[in-house]
């Protein structure tokens, strides 16, 4: 028992470094580690091959690509600016010319009035169409001191009852001088296929003593400024009339008249 107690068992010190292997073992371990390192190196992925791209100098690219585009844009901008400026100058010249002409000639619209309306014929035909013939006396007044008016071909006057045209005619071709008053005696004729319906409505309206009629005028004219004759324009007019009767060959009284005229370029 004493012998067993006197024996001392080796105690491993954890903090102490591990014992070095023998030289033979160290050489074997170094060889194995070398081979393992070589294997690991062989197994590692190879980096991708690098391709060198020649760089173009920045100044060279600008001179070949950027500068032509800038030049094209600058040319377009200059062209647009010149065009807008030219149009602006033309508009100013037109406005100035129109202002000068207005101050010199003082243009005024001609005035028109209906003096008399007479019905020569108003009857139903055998096919129940309505035949009408009106005589209209119109006074045309040109109040301008320095402007003459050429009445050209293609004018049209028409008399309407509600939405039905009763008759139509045209103005003669003539020239109206400065501050001139011209009286026109015009004959208007027409035929409407819905005669029976229109005649019945006119007879019913005649009992009230107030029959509404509408006179429409479209007259192509040319204005003369001094010795200069301008291009054709149109005088558009509309007169709302109220007459007491539409009996043929009777004196018709115009109870109300409202006319509006304008100039269309």
Topology:
Elements lengths: L1 H5 L16 H21 L14 H48 L5 E14 L5 E13 L4 E5 L4 E6 L2 E6 L4 E3 L3 E13 L2 H12 L4 E15 L2 E16 L10 E11 L1
Antiparallel strand pairs: 1-2, 2-7, 3-6, 3-8, 4-5, 4-8, 8-9, 9-10
Organism: Rubroshorea leprosula
Keywords: Membrane, Transmembrane, Transmembrane helix
Protein name: Late embryogenesis abundant protein LEA-2 subgroup domain-containing protein
Please tell me about this protein's structure.
The strands form two sheets. Strands 3, 4, 5, 6, 8, 9 and 10 form a seven-stranded antiparallel sheet that branches. The protein is α+β, with helices and mostly antiparallel strands. The protein has helices spanning 2-6, 23-43, 58-105, 195-206; strands at residues 111-124, 130-142, 147-151, 156-161, 164-169, 174-176, 180-192, 211-225, 228-243, 254-264. The N and C termini lie far apart (144 Å). The radius of gyration is 54 Å and the shape is elongated. β1 (111-124) and β2 form a beta hairpin. It comes from Rubroshorea leprosula. Residues 1-30 are annotated as: Disordered. One of its GO terms (biological process) is defense response to other organism.
Radius of gyration using CA atoms only = 54 Å
Low-pLDDT stretches: 1-6, 24-30, 32-42, 59-64
> How confident is the prediction overall: mean pLDDT?
79
Q: What structural class do the secondary elements suggest?
A: alpha+beta
Count, helices: 4
In the CATH hierarchy, the third-tier topology of the domain at 111-264 is known as: Immunoglobulin-like
N to C succession of SSEs = HHHEEEEEEEHEEE
**What is the CATH class name of the domain at 111-264?**
Mainly Beta
Overall 3D shape: elongated
Number of strands: 10
N-to-C span? 144 Å
The CATH architecture of the domain at 111-264 comes to Sandwich
Helix content percent band: 25-40%
What percentage of amino acids are in beta strands? Answer: 35-45%
């Amino acid at each position: 028992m004493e012998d067993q107690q006197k024996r001392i068992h080796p105690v491993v010190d954890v903090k102490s470094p591990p014992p070095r292997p023998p030289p033979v073992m160290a050489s074997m371990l170094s060889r194995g580690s070398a081979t393992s390192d070589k294997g690991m190196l062989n197994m590692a992925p190879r980096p991708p091959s690098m391709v060198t791209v020649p760089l173009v100098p920045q100044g060279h690219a600008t001179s070949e690509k950027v500068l032509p585009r800038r030049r094209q844009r600058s040319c377009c901008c200059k062209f647009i600016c010149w065009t807008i400026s030219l149009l602006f100058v033309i508009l100013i010249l037109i406005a100035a010319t129109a202002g000068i002409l207005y101050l010199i000639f003082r243009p005024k619209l001609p005035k028109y009035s209906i003096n008399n309306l007479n019905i020569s014929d108003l009857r139903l035909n055998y096919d129940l169409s309505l035949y009408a013939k009106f005589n209209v006396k119109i006074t045309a007044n040109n109040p301008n001191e320095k402007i003459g008016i050429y009445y050209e071909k293609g004018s049209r006057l028409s008399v309407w009852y509600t939405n039905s045209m009763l008759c139509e005619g045209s103005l003669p071709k003539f020239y109206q001088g400065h501050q001139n008053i011209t009286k026109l005696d015009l004959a208007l004729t027409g035929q409407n296929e819905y005669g029976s319906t229109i005649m019945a409505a006119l007879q019913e309206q005649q009992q009230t003593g107030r029959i509404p009629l509408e006179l429409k005028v479209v007259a192509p004219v040319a204005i003369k400024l001094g010795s200069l004759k301008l291009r054709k324009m149109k005088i558009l007019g509309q007169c709302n009339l109220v007459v007491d009767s539409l009996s043929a060959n009777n004196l018709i009284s115009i109870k109300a008249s409202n006319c509006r005229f304008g100039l269309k370029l």
